[in-house]
Amino acid sequence: MTEPTVVIDLEKEKQEILKRYRGLLRAGKKVRTDQEKKLIRKALTVAIDAHKEMRRKSGEPYIYHPIEVARITADEIGLGTTSIICALLHDTVEDTHITLDDVNSMFGEKVMKIVDGLTKISSMVDTGENQFSIQAENFKRILLTLSDDIRVILIKLADRLHNMRTMEFMPRHKQLKIAYETLNIYAPLAHRLGLYAIKTELEDLGLRYTEPELYKTIEENLSSTQKKRTRYINKFSLPIINILTDKGFDFDIKGRTKSIFSIANKMKKKDVEFDEVYDIFAIRIILNSKPEDEKTDCWKVYSHVTDLYTPRPDRLRDWISTPKGNGYESLHTTVMGQDGRWVEVQIRTKRMDEIAEKGLAAHWKYKSLSPEQENHLDTWISKITKMLESGDNNALEFIDDFKMNFFADEIYVFTPAGDIKNLPTGATALDFAYEIHSRVGDQCIGAKVNHKLVPLNYELQSGEQIEILTSKKQTPKEEWLQYVVTAKAKSCIKEAMKEEQKKIAVDGKEKFKVWMDQLAIIVNPNVLGQLTQHFGVPSVGDLYYKIATDVVQLNDIEKFYKQKFENKKKKVPKEKEKTKAGKIGMLTLGIDEHINYKLSPCCNPIPGDEVFGFNSADEGIKIHKTNCPNAMHLLSNFASRTIKAQWNNNQNVAFLTGIQFIGIDDFGLLNKITTIISMEEHINIKSIFFTSEEGFFEGKIMLYVTNTEHLQSLMDKFKQINGVHKVDRLMDVTG
Ligand code: MN
Q1: Distance 312 CA to ligand 1 centre (A)
Q2: pLDDT tens, residue by residue, 165-223
Q3: Ligand 1: distance of its center to the CA of 65 in Å?
Q4: How far apart are CA 445 and CA 456, in angstroms?
Q5: What amino acid positions are annotated as catalytic residues?
Q6: CATH number for the domain harbouring residue 102
Q7: Could you tell me the end-to-end alpha-carbon distance of the chain, in angstroms, rounded to an integer?
Q8: pTM of the full predicted structure?
Q9: 469 lies in which domain range?
Q10: How many angstroms separate the alpha carbon of residue 259 from the centre of ligand 1?
Q11: What CATH number did the domain enclosing 294 receive?
């Protein structure tokens, strides 16, 4: 993307900064004291001066960015003056001459600590070439700040949101990396903190950059059906408005559309087109209730709505009686509207709505109202802290565990005494046992769910009541690690395994001593080092364990020494110097034939697809499509190993790809398809596969094409054939 040329008009920019500053003072619709205004002004002056030589990629003065981040912090997250000041200063310590000491002396310790937290997070990004996984480490740091001051994360989210909103002029590879990282980490984090509006926008923007075409299709479809949808929602809402007014409710009713991201997800998951995503209609009823009437009012409204429209029994969600872990409260139902369409109806009070939109910040505002909810969040944060403390696992594993434990949807289950426990979806009876106490987990032999006996790995469902059966003779087993999903259970089992291994290893050590005497080898650290390396174990203790459990036997050790002896006799040829792939700025596919690259079989790119290279440790460079199912994992966790890549235009090579059809069988359909292919000049068929059952046919064709344009024109021709309903490109052409 070319950078825009901007004619710089300093006077105009000054006016613009002033305008934005005034907007900032009004942000959050709060009345600020003169002292507060003075501090904001001071922070702005410091930031303007510090960033005065800097411009953004768009050509705009850099200071627009911190001002906007500050405004988002106040307006869209609902934080106060301290956070505005920190947001204004968030990039100064990292990018300019300003130091933390300066911030401390000008704005005090609290501001300094938050700015320090923000600096620590961002200084991890884009550093260290060989860092195993920068993002994973970075993510851990972000979480560490949670327990210090949650505002650090909230301001970081505002920063990310503004960067996502203004990514247009970034180079493409950076857009992709940032967008995938946002989808992988920041959007789920926003979700978990209850910031729904920000989560939704981050997801939509993420999709816009990772799958621009899909995004555009949905966006266009939404805007072309906008009027129709509004008309329908009005027609649907009118009877509800009438009855609620009649009954004297003070309420607001809003039509809402599903986010582009969630529509895209539905389309992908169910493999359907836009028109077939059925539940894009939704309304929200927001009640102005007295605190003591909130729950009753919501259920009364539910009752009126379901008098008018029939509800789908499996779609009632009551997050009022048991709020989500992030504090979300609402009543959801899906009802059958006019013309047989499903409409989701959300019922909640103003307080609940504010918490749903702004999450934490609103939470604090209503703190006095619901102490249990504050508890939810505290429990969540203290669980995260514990997990970080026990973190002996590597960073990537940590992210997976974390996402499983803290981003996954939750289930609610009960103890025999009726106490409620939150667990991530997928949690088993054994997880539940460990949730009660580590000893209960260690001694667990089974469980009763709703009074019925179940095995340890039984997957729990919301609402079930669980009684754990224990035995003092029970000890944790290695395979239990496969049964559990919670971090707590995993770390308890691993801990117990270690203890167990230590005990067993003592026998192994005795055995080892006897063997080495037989072989007449004197045991010293050097010998132990060679053996642990040879058997691929991390420590001597592990070696002893393997010996005790007969995984390593006497003749294995004998073999090792024989081999060593043989090798010494032979003259050892010099090991070939490892060829090191030099730094590759841009891989031009088709030209750089001296560079060994492969087209990855997971997505099979062909010329015309947007692609990137990935330096895989064992198989050289692999080329993936930027919307490959693995792209998110690769780009957000191993950004430093990715390589920019583009196709060479004068390509004459043919690439293997696949097309899939679905349709209603009609005489000669196969014939029509093969005729079209045979008329094409540059196409070679590798294989054709058709099945037809009761008039419904499915087909797959593997063929060689030169580029995407070529493929698209062929697919368009197929779509013209009578009876063909759906034509798709196959991602995986191995099958
Ligand atoms: Mn920033």
Answers
A1: 45
A2: 999 988 888 888 889 888 888 888 888 777 888 999 999 999 999 999 999 999 999 98
A3: 7
A4: 7
A5: 94-95
A6: 1.10.3210.10
A7: 37
A8: 0.67
A9: 408-485
A10: 26
A11: 3.30.460.10
